[in-house]
Amino acid sequence: MLLECNQETYAVLTEQARVPVGRVLLELPAGMLSDDAGDFVGTAAQEVEEEIGIHIKSSDLVNLTDFLHPSTGQQIFPSPGGCDEGIKLMLYRCHVKQEVIDSLKGKQTGLREDGEFIKVHVVPYKSLWRSTTDAKALAAISLYEMGKREGLLEECPNISD
């Protein structure tokens, strides 16, 4: 999720405890498919709403992994030596007012009934690569930057409240 405000681009991250690595991590909003329909885009929009508290339309998401060659299966395998998990990376971008940025900083979200205790962080995009150890975020930066360089991304949409 990239938000543009006052000529600055910001990335929105979540802070969550991750038991397998024994740490609290800053990472991209993410979730797992809850059905066999394979609706990655709908799941991504739902996760943004649950973890960030912003309602977005599925049609506003860009599947960055679609930029990959079809022979790759257009998904990323974060740890292919250890598991068969394949992921798709979605991009949401829009211009927002400063009030939106301010309202997100430190916001507490997550589905408590599912044991989610999430804190939202807003960081300047230019320092995102140094702000997280999340492989999803680092791969998304690469795909986003290459997509921009190759002219595969449209202009950022207008202001959203």
From TrEMBL:
A Pfam family this chain is assigned to: NUDIX
Keyword DNA-binding carried by entry: no
InterPro entries: NUDIX_hydrolase-like_dom_sf, NUDIX_hydrolase_dom
KW Hydrolase (keyword) present: yes
Span of domain Nudix hydrolase: 1-145
GO biological process, one term: ribose phosphate metabolic process
SUPFAM superfamilies in alphabetical order: Nudix
Keywords from the UniProt entry: Hydrolase
Protein name per UniProt: Nudix hydrolase domain-containing protein
Organism (species): Ceratopteris richardii (Triangle waterfern)
